């Protein structure tokens, strides 16, 4: 007799994929995948599948793509599945209480922060933007209130100052998959899992990233600008205006020898790019930063040396 746990998996972006792949085991099976409806994208505005849908199709897992989970039709479909557990990883739709109540062994979520810090849509972006020293993954029970459920297990990682959202997302996705497999196995074996309620006094919210955040404010300190660039990589990309076109900045670092660039302060305007010792420098209100990777509008990403060769820039001579 097959006594595998029956799982409904709800997820949408690439972050969700490692957990989905890790749930088809000798003790659990994903019987349905919930993912958001296909969206039009690209120049041809063709319908594109979510990362989770692509994996589900490749593994022949039945897929549901409702616009909302509040309708009776999707409720009845999920009820008929008679699944044991609901696993949620960056799904993106509100899950009503009556749907949560369908799963006798509970509903569990992989959240990319050390709760209660950074509840909400963009926890990795905000952790990098605000200069957190650490971040991590928390497995929690799903409740109606956003990311407010009790916690089962978590794991932290150190945040290096050069890490981007894309790099941290990949690391946390893999960690989340490992932690969720551990929880599902414990549920299968009927082990007692200790839960910890979140301290509401420590809650912070990670608001969704808006495209309007992409334009850099030159009045901020260099350290804050660097964090902003890292937090917006790979989406939507921090940007400045260069020769009346959008220029995206993908990687930058602080300048070690700050005194060496003092001469530039008198000659270079705020927001201007210039070269110093064959390095690409962006002038800010309160200093400068070194640009390492960037992307002119309509072109591919390139390193700073390629950009310098292709564009005429002000040049500050070596200062001895």
Summarize the topology.
Blueprint lengths: L4 E7 L5 H7 L4 E7 L4 E3 L4 E3 L2 H8 L4 E2 L7 H10 L3 E5 L7 H4 L6 E5 L7 E2 L2 H7 L4 E8 L9 E8 L6 H24 L16 E2 L15 H10 L6 E5 L2 E10 L7 H4 L7 E4 L2 E6 L2 E10 L5 E2 H7 L3 E3 L4
Parallel strand pairs: 1-2, 1-6, 2-5, 6-7, 8-11, 14-18
Antiparallel strand pairs: 3-4, 7-9, 9-10, 12-13, 13-16, 14-15, 15-16, 16-17
Helix pairs in contact: 1-6, 5-7
How confident overall, as mean pLDDT? 93
The coarse silhouette is: elongated
Given as residue ranges, the uncertain stretches (5+ residues, pLDDT < 50) are: none
Give the tally of structural domains.
2
CATH class of the largest domain: Alpha Beta
In terms of DSSP E residues, the strand content is: 25-35%
Distance between the termini: 80 Å
| CATH topology descriptor of the largest domain | Rossmann fold
Strands of the largest sheet, in order across it?
Answer: 5-2-1-6-7-9-10
Please tell me how large the radius of gyration is.
23 Å
Task: Count up the helices.
Answer: 9
Largest sheet: 7 strands, mixed
Task: Count all strands and give the number.
Answer: 18
- The run of helices and strands is EHEEEHEHEHEEHEEHEHEEHEEEEHE
């Amino acid at each position: 007799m097959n006594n595998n746990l029956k799982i409904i998996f709800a997820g949408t972006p690439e972050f969700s994929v490692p957990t989905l792949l890790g749930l088809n085991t000798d003790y659990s099976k994903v019987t349905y995948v919930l993912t958001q409806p296909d969206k039009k994208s690209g120049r041809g505005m063709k319908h594109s599948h979510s990362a989770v849908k692509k994996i589900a199709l490749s593994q022949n897992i039945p897929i549901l793509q409702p616009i909302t989970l509040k309708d009776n039709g999707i409720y009845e479909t999920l009820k008929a599945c008679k699944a044991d557990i609901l696993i949620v990883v960056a799904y993106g739709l509100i899950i009503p209480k009556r749907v949560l109540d369908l799963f006798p062994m509970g509903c569990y979520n992989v959240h990319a922060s050390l709760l209660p810090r950074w509840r909400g849509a963009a926890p990795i972006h905000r952790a990098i933007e605000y200069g957190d020293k650490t971040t991590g993954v928390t497995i929690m029970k799903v409740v109606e209130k956003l990311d407010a459920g009790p916690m089962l297990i978590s794991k932290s990682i150190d945040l290096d100052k050069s890490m981007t959202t894309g790099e941290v997302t990949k690391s946390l996705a893999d960690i989340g998959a490992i932690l969720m497999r551990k929880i599902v196995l414990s549920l299968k074996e009927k082990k007692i899992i200790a839960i910890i309620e979140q301290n509401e006094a420590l809650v912070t919210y990670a608001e969704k990233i808006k495209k309007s955040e992409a334009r850099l404010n030159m009045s901020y300190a260099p350290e804050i600008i660097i964090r902003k660039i890292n937090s917006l990589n790979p989406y939507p990309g921090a940007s400045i205006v260069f020769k009346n076109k959008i220029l995206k900045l993908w990687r930058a670092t602080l300048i070690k020898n700050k005194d060496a660039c003092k001469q530039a302060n008198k000659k270079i305007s705020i927001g201007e790019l210039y070269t110093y010792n064959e390095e690409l420098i962006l002038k800010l209100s309160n200093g400068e930063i070194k640009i390492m990777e960037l992307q002119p509008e309509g072109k591919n990403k390139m390193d700073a040396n390629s950009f310098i060769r292709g564009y005429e820039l002000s040049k500050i001579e070596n200062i001895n």
